[in-house]
Amino acid sequence: MVNVTINNTPIQVEEGTSILDAAKLVGIHIPTLCFLKDINEIGACRACIVEVEGIDRLVTACDNVVSEGMVIHTDTTRVREARKTNLELLLSQHRVNCPSCFRNGTCQLQKVASTLRISDTLSFKTEFPEDKWNDKLPIIRDESKCIKCYRCVSVCQKVQSLGIWDMVGTGAHTTVGVSNHRSLEDADCAFCGQCITHCPTNALHTRDDTEAIIGVNGVMDDKDKITVVQVAPAVRAAWGEEFGLSPEVATEKRLAAALRRVGFDYVFDTNFSADLTIMEEGTEFLERIKHPEGKKFPMFTSCCPGWVRFLKSQYPDMVDQLSTAKSPQQMFGAVTKSYFAEKIGVDPENIVCVSIMPCTTKKAELDIPSINDAKEGCKDVDFSLTTREMCRMIKADQIDVAALPEEDFDSPLGTGTGAAVIFGTTGGVMEAALRTCYYVLTGENPNADETFKAVRALGSDKPWIEAEYNVGGITVKAAVVNGLGNARRLIRALRRGEVEYQFVEVMACPGGCVGGGGQPIHYNEERAAERGQVLYNYDSANTLRFSHENPEIKAIYADYLGEPCGEKSHHLLHTDHHAWTMPEPPVYDEDVVH
Questions:
Q1: What local confidence, expressed as pLDDT, does residue 123 receive?
Q2: Is the pTM here over 0.90, yes or no?
Q3: Contact assessment for residue 580 and residue 368, using Cβ atoms and an 8 Å cutoff
């Protein structure tokens, strides 16, 4: 322990504690922009500078540790003026259009600037180059908003292990760009969006598709079109954050009511197609494990498109180990443009299918030609909106969501089980699949709360978790991993023969979909754990806990699909991962997570 004094307050802290953390212990907030604990601690923005007695220059609090007898001042005139000057320099190279910016209200630069009495006479006349980024991609970069904080670079390198972003240019022209002189469309980007959620400004943001739906000449203005919206499991765990509402108020049924007020004709639940995914993927896994001849193991889940992109680009020789089952988003689109279209007697071309997802990669997934099978020339899912985009639509219509009554999802694609809702958190897909596999092999349901609890990975500090089960006489060795850096570590262990599994669940984003790149943004707050608990609460409260017990799933197989992995379901609900290509990554040392 060392003794230090911060703003005349003596305190004893552990040796090695940063000045930033020491200040927090006595209730003193030091502003930061570039700081990301354990990932980006480089003092680049200079917003956290403090004065230390005995040192002439001001020092950064995020990357300097306390020492015995240190006397620190965070509120002197010198500190305040230096911070103010540093912020003004950043703002002088920043396009200030806060009222129309997507990050208005959640921008850390805006927040810090508002506390430092930035002069209203400051002139913002910097000329910015025209952006030449492909606006068809899910991720857009706006150089005029970049403050060179390096957070996107560090997250992509250290957490996701892809190294898509890097500092490019020299001198005054230094900025963030795609590494190795590539364009983003030619890079091996997974489009996971973690760079977006960790950007403190709007320099990186998601392509906005709301205008195509509610804007002038949007699909809602076309009276000949029927608009159908599906809501992913993880969305219900986070959407209330945008409105300052607790999970007890921001329920899934209140969200259904809000989407009806926005103007959608049918409001369905992606939980339905998550259950459908379990029926298809679980059946596929059982067939592989019962007849392993010529099969490669483990079988990987395929519901996360960011993970699929990662595997196709980084380890293309392992693509055959992916389940051929489509993601719940795409399964939903397929049955909407076939089964549902027939039920209501409408041409699929007159149905506009919109998905609300916690994910940015979903915007790319729906454009894969080989994944659209309901009707030739017709996309199964027309638009994929992030949780943030959905909330902007609700706000645009001035809807007081807290005052709305709770309303059920529509039928026949609106019923989901507890197994489906936990799809949104890491380990949820594995647990849901094992619940149904257990039933198929034994004829009995397992204990939904206890039997497969070991695969719940949320909150684990391990790169991945593993569990072994004896299910109906068959040994299943399973693993669950989230975050692409951890996925790379697991694959390397598999390829070296250090571990062996039959079934592996992979989610691209840390924490799974609840921590997705399309979720509400909170500076330096990781909310995946608490959002995941919301989903487990939904599971526990659901009267249906198993995908095979969903009455609407039973109905669609009885009336339309036939059987899981049958001819019709294989055509509509499965895909060929080899039918499209990914850019190849740069060559790196395989022993280094770059």
A1: 58
A2: yes
A3: yes
